[in-house]
Amino acid sequence: MAFISIDKCRRRLGKGGSGDGSFTTFLLEQLEIERGEAIALTGPSGYGKTTLLNLIAGLLKPDSGEIEVAGIRVDKLSAGDADRFRRDNLGFVYQTFNLLAPFSALQNVLIGMRFGRTVPLHHRRRRAMELMERVRLSHRLSHCPDELSVGEQQRVAIARAMGNTPKILLADEPTANLDPAASRSVTELLLSLWRETSCTLLVVTHDPAIASFLPRSFDCSNLLREE
Amino acid sequence: MNLFHIAWNYLWRRRLTTSLTVFSVAMGVALISTVMTLRREAHRTFIEQSQSYDVVVGAKGSPLQLTLSTLYYLDVPTGNILYSDYEKVRANPHVASAYPLGLGDNYRGFRIVGTSPEFFQQGRSRKQSPASAPMFRLAAGRLFEQDMEVVVGSFVARTVGIDLGDEIIASHGVVASHKEARHEATPYTVVGILEPTHTANDRALFASLSSVWKIHGHDEHPHGALEVTAVLVRLKSAARRFSFVESVNTEYNAMAAIPAMQISKFAARVLMPSQEILLAIAYLVVLVAAISILVSLYLATSQRKRDLAIMRGLGASASEVFRMVLTESLTVSLLGVLAGLVLGHGASAVLGHVLYLSTGIVANPLSFSASEILACSVVFAVGLAAGLLPAWEAYTVEVAAGLSER
Predict the structure, then answer these.
(1) Which of A96, A98, A118 to mutate to test the interface with B (most CBs of B within 10 A)?
(2) How do A64-69 and A168-172 pair as beta strands?
(3) Which of B352, B354, B355, B377 minimizes the C-alpha distance to B365?
(4) ipTM score assigned to the predicted complex
(5) Which of A151, B63, B219, B267 could form a disulfide linkage to B213, CB 3.0–4.6 angstroms apart?
(6) CATH code of the domain in which A151 resides
(7) At what angle do helices A121-134 and A150-162 cross, to 10 degrees?
(8) Domain interval for residue A172
(9) Does B316 touch chain A (CB under 8 A)?
(10) Does residue B155 sit in the same domain as residue B300?
(11) What residue of B is the nearest CA neighbor of A107?
């Protein structure tokens, strides 16, 4: 059995754009991703890549079909169990970074570990400092998100996502808001962390150049249909 | 980073709103605290003082007026009674001690009280001996020994700036100080200054009864025509108060009243209802403060649904974000209650001083009662409850929708 396995997954998303009462439906026949694999989920914006990520993360439930991640039937989880599943297994990196504005860069990483709870309390600060050094931001520890460049913000978000040593790192368009140089830098950082930790890496991107850095791609162009 | 630390950062980020909300809670608590403290302290000291004597005997009239004018120097006396009546009271076998009071003059608004030297030999209450707990101690000088010598209460000495050896001119009447009514020809000499007693006696000056008679020209009359304003009586047994009052009212041309009963009735009929109204206003302020907690937290929660979704994405459970928002309302309520207590007891100190200036009654602004602690707990609970709706908003936040906002 693959580490991530999706089988005949269907999820109605909302009314379609044609105005004839049809609905937009997400439909994925099958996707299997092995443990430790790095995969790019590619396709144009608005074609269901983020929906796929949310289904894998247990943030959305399919109307039918099966989703199994790390031996857990994610589609069967209750809301509380889904919280615990994300906490114990996943790390997120978002297009808009999703840093918490009132907190410094270091505090953002610490908050990730506080809610993740996989790192013992007395090790958290040291680990957060190590991660900030790893993403080359040890000189920006006390800076709040609005005092950082977009590239720096994304590196903080990556440090935060890696805080709990997740089994799976989900990156949703991590380079979409960055300039080409920062995009390349962030992608390289993600890949080097993937190699160091042997986690499973899923990167959603519409940019073929970014996808080309990853060993495997999965085309998401045909995931949505009007029914 | 614990939940409190995270909640505090959000409160600090909107510190103007937080401060205003804390202030509104504090105002409510301060009002409650001030009303309760002053009510309790005024009631306590009023009652304590009223219990110093079992019975007060004076001219017929209002028993409450007699009590207020002789124990607290607040109202005008009901009139005078014969000195011979005082002697009869003193000779009564049930009477342990009887202190005559002769009122009628004042010095710059402070009453001059004619009395006997035994007045200074009494204990603080009927149960305390003069040796173990004396009502009066001299701060300087001595007690009066001759006519036209006066001993000054501590508040009078401090306020007016009187010193030993000073001569003072009394004015006729218990409050007025008209130049034409001044006893210029018969000045008093200050021979003693009393230590504070924390009673109305701090606001009085004391001379011999014969001084009061002399200043009004009564000393030339036969002894039987002499008068006193009232007699403060301590009985050998408090159980005899009612029978003693009855005997005075029927056998003497005078009236007797039980001060403790008069003051209790006065408190129940006049003081308490007005304080209840103030307290009701205070609770209304608290209600408004609770609504302001609700509004500010609700708006803050609505504005950071994305942050809450991010936390959920990081692994926070729904109950954790619920508790985090509740921690914010808890913090605001707690800060409001603490600031309110400081403000309230500060205001009690100021208003207590005003009370002392007008009545001589000392209210301890630092005293706490179970009812005040209960009231603060109620405010705290109301503030906490005001956080429930915003906390529920946080609990039910749509994680996927919040995270996918661009």
Answers:
(1) A98
(2) unpaired
(3) B352
(4) 0.85
(5) B219
(6) 3.40.50.300
(7) 140
(8) 36-60+86-221
(9) yes
(10) no
(11) B1
